[in-house]
């Protein structure tokens, strides 16, 4: 599986490493990337917020898409324990002649063991005296610090990419829509006794659970290392794709790729607004081929009813 990873060198002020995959492998760093689309410097652009964590420090990187999506303008913040002053501040860079300011306050940020903070923080991106992107729960503090008004156009979350390490089990949390709630996703790869049907007496299999309920169970994983299925989470259809070839057949530290793509319709969103938490009975698993296409004309959806949002989960298996 040859999939571009694109990890920024969050922990070094030196030039970007030529092989990002090697950088991830050597550092063992967890990476969490969120990509937003919003208007900045008179154009709709992508802003990428990247949180990195290894044994020594946390890192924050803010990157703004350049002309034609090629060049990027980036500011990086390293949160080393002995650099307390770096936990609050601002940086400026120029995007096609316009100043873009990044403000952050992470003095009291609560990470709770995660790569991305959970609460007590803000990260704000400002251009043309507008806060074009604001993350965190300290919104009042952010507007007071920047002295700028909210942007007229709300940013759209396009994707999340997360790199996690584990031996057999990998977990993360995700919202399939901004109006929804967080769901716990866990992926586990295990060996099952084959009763002598394989050369070594065991066969790999994979389980994917959401909020504790198994929604996908793949047996004979050595033959089904790539695939996809549709599941339903609180009446929202989610397409799940997996590629675990390198887990099984490539030596050394390699990653599997999982993609979770929600398909939102107007009916799905009405269910979201009327339900605060999903019952376990609302989680089901059905073959992809048996599902029909949904449609919708809501903001953030494309013509087929598919949400713009995708979760890309890179699971690095450590032996």
Q: Can you walk through the features of this model?
A:
- This protein is mostly beta strands and 319 residues long.
- The protein is 9% helix and 47% strand.
- The chain has helices at residues 20-27, 139-146, 245-249, 266-274, and strands spanning 30-40, 43-53, 58-65, 72-79, 88-95, 98-105, 122-127, 130-136, 149-150, 156-166, 169-174, 183-193, 202-210, 213-218, 226-233, 236-243, 254-263, 284-286, 310-317.
- It has a ten-stranded mixed sheet. Strands 5-6-7-8-9 form a five-stranded mixed sheet, with helices on one face.
- A hairpin with a 4-residue loop joins strand 2 and strand 3.
- The longest helix has 9 residues, at 266-274.
- It is elongated, with a radius of gyration of 21 Å.
- Mean pLDDT is 77; it is low at 1-20 and 271-305.
How many distinct helices? 4
Helix content: under 10%
Given as residue ranges, the uncertain stretches (5+ residues, pLDDT < 50) are 1-20, 271-305
Beta-strand proportion: over 45%
Nearest-integer average pLDDT: 77
The SS-based structural class is: mainly beta
DSSP strand count: 19
Biggest pleated-sheet summary? 10 strands, mixed
How would you spell out the order of helices and strands?
HEEEEEEEEHEEEEEEEEHEHEE
Ends apart, CA distance between termini: 19 Å
Radius of gyration: 21 Å
Strands of the widest sheet, in order across it, are 4-3-2-1-10-19-17-16-15-18
Described by the principal axes of the CA atoms, the overall outline is: elongated
């Amino acid at each position: 599986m040859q999939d571009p990873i694109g990890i920024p060198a969050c922990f070094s002020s030196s030039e970007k490493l030529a092989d990002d995959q090697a950088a991830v492998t050597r550092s063992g760093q967890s990476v969490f990337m969120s990509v937003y689309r919003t208007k900045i410097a008179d154009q709709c652009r992508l802003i990428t917020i990247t949180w990195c964590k290894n044994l020594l420090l946390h890192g924050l990187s803010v990157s703004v898409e350049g002309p034609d999506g090629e060049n990027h303008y980036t500011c990086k913040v390293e949160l080393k324990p002995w650099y307390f002053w770096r936990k609050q501040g601002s940086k400026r860079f120029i995007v096609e002649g316009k100043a873009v300011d990044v403000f952050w306050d992470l003095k009291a940020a609560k990470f709770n063991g995660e790569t991305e903070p959970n609460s007590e923080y803000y990260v704000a991106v400002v251009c043309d005296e507008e806060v074009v992107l604001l993350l965190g729960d300290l919104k009042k503090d952010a507007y007071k610090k920047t002295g700028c008004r909210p942007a007229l156009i709300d940013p759209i979350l396009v994707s999340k990419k997360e790199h996690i390490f584990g031996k057999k089990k990998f977990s993360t949390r995700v919202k399939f829509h901004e109006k929804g709630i967080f769901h716990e996703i866990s992926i586990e790869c295990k060996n099952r006794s084959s009763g002598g049907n394989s050369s070594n007496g065991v066969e790999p299999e994979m389980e994917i659970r959401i909020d504790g309920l198994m929604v996908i169970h793949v047996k004979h994983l050595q033959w089904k290392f790539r695939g996809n299925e549709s599941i339903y989470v609180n009446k929202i259809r989610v397409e799940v794709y997996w590629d675990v070839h390198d887990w099984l057949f490539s030596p050394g530290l390699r990653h599997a790729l999982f993609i979770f793509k929600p398909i939102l319709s107007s009916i799905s969103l009405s269910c979201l607004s009327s339900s605060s938490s999903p019952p376990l009975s609302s989680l089901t698993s059905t073959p992809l081929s048996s599902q029909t296409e949904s449609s919708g004309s809501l903001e953030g959806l494309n013509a087929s009813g598919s949400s713009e949002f995708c979760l890309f989960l890179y699971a690095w298996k450590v032996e």
